[in-house]
Amino acid sequence: MSTDIVARYFAAFNAGDAEGMLALVSDDVEHHVNQGEVRRGRAVFAEFCAHMGVSYREELRDLVIFANDDGTRAAAEFTVHGEYLQTDPGLPEARGQRYVLPAGSFFALRDGRITRVTTYYNLQDWIAQVSA
């Protein structure tokens, strides 16, 4: 069931288990980020996961997962509870600031794998929180 793979993906995320997340995505996964270029392929997605693990510590709470009937699409709504650990280029300086941010992700699924992840959040809200 499509909600199961998304639930496993987010459980791995919350556990800081990048390998667990990578095991659920296809070799040709597309990662559409809120601001920026589309990342294509598992290797590039792995680089993103490694970077996130160093720069941020996040836990997703209040998770609700939705899916279409044929199992090819899913979506999730959640609240990000995070800590900004290491400065990300072009963003405010990291000083261990904490933030809480509503967000959502959309997924395309094929053959038991995630083929696309698209995540949205309010970047200006995040910047305001970590700049305060």
Number of helices: 4
Spans of at least 5 consecutive residues whose pLDDT stays below 50 are none
- The run of helices and strands is HHEEHEEEEH
* Fraction in beta strands: 35-45%
Which class of secondary structure composition applies to the elements? Answer: alpha+beta
| Biggest pleated-sheet summary | 6 strands, mixed
What's the CATH class label? Alpha Beta
CATH architectural name? Roll
Q: Which term fits the overall shape?
A: globular
- Give, in spatial order, the strands making up the sheet with the most strands: 2-1-6-5-4-3
In round numbers, the mean pLDDT is: 94
The Rg value, from CA coordinates, equals 14 Å
In whole angstroms, how far apart are the ends?
A: 42 Å
Q: Percent range for helical residues?
A: 25-40%
- Give me the count of strands: 6
Counting structural domains, the number is: 1
Q: The CATH topology, please?
A: Nuclear Transport Factor 2, Chain: A
Report on the structure:
The chain has helices spanning 2-14, 18-22, 42-55, 123-131; strands at 25-32, 39-40, 56-67, 73-84, 98-110, 113-121. The chain is α+β, with helices and mostly antiparallel strands and 132 residues long. It has a single domain (2-131), classed as Nuclear Transport Factor 2, Chain: A. The N and C termini lie far apart (42 Å).
Which helices and strands appear, and what pairs or packs with what?
Layout (H helix, E strand, L loop, with lengths): L1 H13 L3 H5 L2 E8 L6 E2 L1 H14 E12 L5 E12 L13 E13 L2 E9 L1 H9 L1
Parallel strand pairs: 1-6
Antiparallel strand pairs: 1-2, 3-4, 4-5, 5-6
